Amino acid sequence: MPHPNARALTGRIALADGSVLRGVGFGASGAQAGELCFNTAMTGYQEILTDPSYAGQIVTFTFPHIGNVGANAEDEEGGTAAALGCVTREVPTAPSNWRSAGRFADWMSARGLIGVGGVDTRRLTRLIRGKGAPHAVIAHAADGVFDEAALVAQARAFAGLVGADLARDVTAPEAYAWADGGWRWPGGYGGEDAAPPRPGRRRVVAIDYGAKRNILRRLVEAGCEVHVLPAGATAAQVRALDPDGLFLSNGPGDPAATAEYAAPMIREIIEQTPIAVFGICLGHQMLGLALGARTVKMNHGHHGANHPVKDLETGKVEIVSMNHGFAVDAQTLPTGVIETHVSLFDGSNCGLKVAGRPVFSVQHHPEASPGPHDSHYLFDRFVSAMG
Ligand SMILES: NC(=O)CC[C@H](N)C(=O)O
Fold it and tell me: CA-CA to 261 of 20 to 30 Å: which in 118, 146, 175, 225?
């Protein structure tokens, strides 16, 4: 007789190398192919899974208990696309906190996210770290019946993130204004109405390549009035709003795949308009590309809320939130572009600035959603750079 606690193995993780891990499926049903990465954050699973930068990826959480505090409407970082699903050590339980809007598994279903729990995530993480982020399929079927060979074939057929322009897929369909944590986006999330522009605020045009909401909130907190433009915005469209600063957001996919539209716009602004420019993550990589540097695919990337980064100008070490699988190759930074931050895990580039200009960017996530607040000062630095 089966153990009374035994649960059917209704989930699978199939890797392109042919291995198949079995677990307990939860959330949405189906089978999705993507790149499998691991995230070491101990909190913030809902922010992670709704961060548009995770489009095309499946997240293995190294922290074993995921979903225990349920899900709620405030913690969503994006309105539409995000990760494909997640892998957990323990099968999520019912929420244990009073403010949850609902069970994690129900929220996963509603978002179309597939979960597989009861997996040896330690083994999976070692595998990803050793061989690089694999192409994989995450699958959930209530009857526990799978064609495992077909899942492996589906993982092998995944084209990968190199060369994939996903920022265009997740960007806002049209321009919108954001203020005080609210936004106006017809058919969107439907949060609070945007407040009218306030006198005395610095005007920022933020390009949405898959922007996390908490970045926009932090910009408002730092004293900005934020106007968001879709990914394909031209320099003329940016200038038409007469901003004091241009913000380049985070986002999914390969930065080099955006070369046709992002780099030319950024270059034109830097060359012709004397405003401050600040980029985060994909925005950092795009700024690097616009300045003439190259980006490279990392082995397994940086995904977590506990990464040490050194500010090379102050010598201070910040513990930061990270989520990237590509990086700017610091060796390719041209003269006049200075490396400002490095990862103390692997020495990879984490920041740059243009000498003598109010133009800078970081690879990590100062908005800390989830994560530590050590890098919040960068939002004030952006506002100061507006003169
Ligand atoms: N969070 C991000 O902006 C990620 C940037 C890019 N997609 C990468 O994986 O490196």
Answer: 225
pLDDT tens readout for residues 42-77: 999 999 999 999 999 999 999 999 998 888 888 889
Report the CATH number at residue 242.
Answer: 3.40.50.880
Whether the pTM exceeds 0.90: the reply is yes
Least confident of 106-120, 148-162, 188-202, 255-269: 188-202
Map tokens 């999914």 to a residue: 252
- Ligand 1: distance of its center to the CA of 325 in Å? 6
Tens digits of residue pLDDT in 166-202: 999 999 988 988 865 444 433 333 344 444 455 678 9
Substitution candidate for ligand 1 out of 59, 282, 322, 348 with most atoms within 8 A of CB = 282
Q: Are residues 147 and 240 both part of a single domain?
A: no
Catalytically annotated residues:
281, 365, 367
Same domain for 208 and 336, yes or no, is yes
Q: Which atom of ligand 1 is nearest to the CA of 285?
A: 5
pLDDT at 349 over 60: yes
State whether ipTM is beyond 0.90. yes
DSSP state of 181: T
Domain count, the chain: 2
| Ligand 1 centroid to residue 234 C-alpha, Å | 21
Local confidence band at 212 (pLDDT 50, 70, 90 cut-offs): very high
Collect all residues with Cβ–Cβ distance below 8 Å to 285 and sequence separation of at least 6. 255, 279, 295, 324, 326, 327, 328, 363
Confirm whether 5 is domain-assigned. no
Query: Which CATH number goes with the domain that contains 24?
Result: 3.50.30.20
